[in-house]
Amino acid sequence: MLPALFLVACSDTVDRRGESPAVAVEVAEVSQGPISLMRTFSGQLEANSSFTVSPKVAARVRTIKVDIGDVVVPGQLLAELDSAEFELAVLEASAEVSVAKANLAQAKQSLEIARKTTTRAETLFKRGVSSEAELDASNNALLAIESDVAVYKAQLDRSEASLDSAEIQLAYTDVRAEWEGERSERLVSARYIDEGQMVTMSNALLEIVDVKVLSGVFFVTEKDYARLQLMQKVELTTDAYPGQVFEATIARIAPVFQASSRQARIELHVPNTDALLKPGMFVQARVEVASEANAFIVPESAVVRRSDQIGIFLVDTGENENIRASWRPVQTGIREGGRVQVIGANLSGRVITLGQQQVEDGARVKIVKTDR
Fold first, then answer.
1. What CATH number should be reported for the domain whose range is 42-47+210-290?
2. Domain 6-38+293-369 top-level CATH class
3. Strand 233-237 relative to strand 282-299: parallel, antiparallel, unpaired?
4. 54: phi then psi, degrees, rounded to nearest 5
5. Which residues, listed in sequence order, are joined to residue 299 by a DSSP beta bridge?
6. Would you say 271 and 247 are in contact if contact means Cβ atoms under 8 Å apart?
7. What is the domain partition of the chain in residue ranges?
């Protein structure tokens, strides 16, 4: 409810009893109810998650499958690189694997023969038919072939590893969208390379951003820093959508102040399910930093300073010709939209909002009610 305002016509005549004339003042009712302190900060939106897509091999770009603004999902093909060189490498590695397998197979056959030969030599030696030297020669031949088998097996393992590597390199010529965590859609925010260009592993192809959830960033001074808390609700507005309010919460509060600005960084969690908000937009963040559910409230113009004291002038309920002003020292609290919280006992009735410069404690005032 709006405070009732009254207007007094100033009397230029002296009271017939010799008192000073009543002072013309304007008054309003002391109200009681909720009041809150809202602070507005300027900031901007940032992507909560973004990454650059770069090739894992050096090659010529054959085709780019997406462009700025396109929606991408995990595993989606984004670009194709020239794969001829990598296909040839796979063929060469496959041939080396085949050769290594053949060598190993031949060595294993030779090993079987050598084992049989050694067994026969041991039998002949026990019968006294062959000499010890012949037995030693047979054992040495077996050991040599066993070594060959181990070598050929290692060569096969190396060849297969080379084939795996070549196939991986070939697969890298298909550049795909990859990210961890929630498997949701994201957007292409930038494209850096055109088809036909040569790229290396240091070249950026695309920028991918998540716009379903954004981060809002603003900075506060020491005065407001202590009033902010994690998970505190924030109302965001932007010139892009006049009159529309977006909900956010405080997600992170920096534990240090920047030396250059003496301000601390505040980050917001901004749900953006409809994807209306975009990274880079400027926003106004409105935060309730203090509130009182049942406060005594007067117009801000009612609060004056007298003799190093802050207070208000209340008016009694006497007859219009004998209404008196009463000085009450108060403490002020939350200020909001021309209203101010005052802290003191028995703060009911009417308070002077205009003309109190000429009023002293106990002075007569004259009030005439105006139309609303």
1. 2.40.30.170
2. mainly beta
3. antiparallel
4. -125, 150
5. 339
6. yes
7. 6-38+293-369, 42-47+210-290, 55-78+178-204, 84-171
